[in-house]
Description:
Layout: E1 7-9, E2 15-19, H1 21-28, H2 32-53, H3 55-66, H4 70-98, H5 100-117, H6 124-138, H7 141-149, H8 157-186, H9 188-195, H10 197-204, H11 213-218, H12 222-236, E3 243-245, H13 275-286, H14 292-321, H15 338-349, H16 352-362, H17 368-383, H18 392-420, H19 426-453, H20 457-476
Parallel strand pairs: 2-3
Antiparallel strand pairs: 1-2
Keywords: Membrane, Transmembrane, Transmembrane helix, Transport
Membrane topology: Multi-pass membrane protein
Family: Belongs to the major facilitator superfamily. Phosphate:H(+) symporter (TC 2.A.1.9) family.
Amino acid sequence: MDNNDEVENNEDGHLDQMYTLDEALSVVGFGRFQVMVLCYAGLGSIAEAMEVMILSFVGPAVKSEWGLSSTQESLITTVVFAGMLVGAYSWGIISDYYGRRKGLVSVAVVTTISAFLSTFSPNYVTLIILRMFVGVGLGGGPVYSSWFLEFVPAQKRGTWMVIFSTFWSVGTILEASLAWIIMPKLGWRWLLALSSIPSFAALIFYRFATESPRYLYMIGKISDVNNILRKMATVNQTDFPSGLLVSDEVPERDEEFAPVERIGLLSSGSNKVSFFEAGISSVIVLFSSRLLKTTLLLWVVYFGNAFAYYGIILLTSEMSSGQSECGSTSLNSKNSDDASLYRDVFITSFAELPGLVLSAIIVDYIGRKRSMALLYFFSFIFLLPLLKHQNEFLTTGLLFGARMCVIGTFTIAGIYCPEIYPTAVRTTGYGVASAVGRIGGMICPLVAVQLVTGCHSVPAIVFFEVVIILSGISVMLFPFETKGRKLTDTVDVCSSS
């Protein structure tokens, strides 16, 4: 049969149309299969959230037990973020070049072993080293997100990615609840041990994780893609498209705009390149002429999101704690008892839920760019009145309103980033952007805590407002909207906003 034919006859005499992977995913739809994928990816997100959240409780407990200095206590958190910087980049390379499943199992192994062993740390140095490796494992969060994304049809991808983001909030609430119950009676070692259970579960259930059809599609394993699509159709009780699965990458008419990034990428599944070569190749693509603007803008947005998110949390804590020596009336006199601390963290964790609901409502309605810009605008408005002293009720409401909006921008950026990058560098690009965000999270306490406790709350608010404005501008400069777009294997340079 002629390869140029658009159709071919099947055994029943029907015409078999050619179709792309995105069209196939639309036909099989979102059903029970994707729900199972969502649950596994969500389990990884819960594990990540709990291991990050635990830092709020372990540091003070270890400081008291081992007589650590404030600097030593802070280092426990710093090494975790440093590990996440390394992990975010490394797991991205592994997932892009050796498959999503290998990335998932590597993340689960490193996180589970190091998290559980840290329970038995005999001294401070051992704890620091093991928690750093926990951070390396936690850097694999973008792998779970990108893997789930590649199973979801384009139509409602934004809404389902927001739903995926709720697992992070569930993890923070679970950790706060666990700390409230465990810490006063059993101590930090039991909290570390029980908090590693989701990581253990992710490792145990890994064998049920299916390789991403998008990744297999990219490396040319079409028969494996068809097998996965048939399984999805069977589980979802939907139709399997008849016809020939073809690439949806159409050559550009103008040679000037040919997608040169394709060169060297589709061989990523060969497993014949070294980790170092894979990393260099990915960096070259991320900084190529067609992705440089996108990469730099995403870095600004991720840095700004993390800076603003952790900053608002710290502002809430500092302006509510009554520890400031500025002489102004604190929002409330905080009980020094540990149970009160755990209760407060538990309650404030719920502040993110309205932001997630709002994101789910608008992300597929007005698009990613407009949604982020709108939420940045409202977070700016919420913080603006704090340039002057406000009463307790209004200050609390403004800070939680700002946090609600910032978690929304964080969530939507986590959808836009993997959507805009091509499959061959999707988890690497997402991972590096996430790593830049971790830098923002590390720098933020130096600004928020030092300025507020140093009686300079106004400059702190101004600083956060500037970061939010720059992030909003960067969003509007993104090259195109990804709402409803097909995921690509290469860079589509002809798309407009």
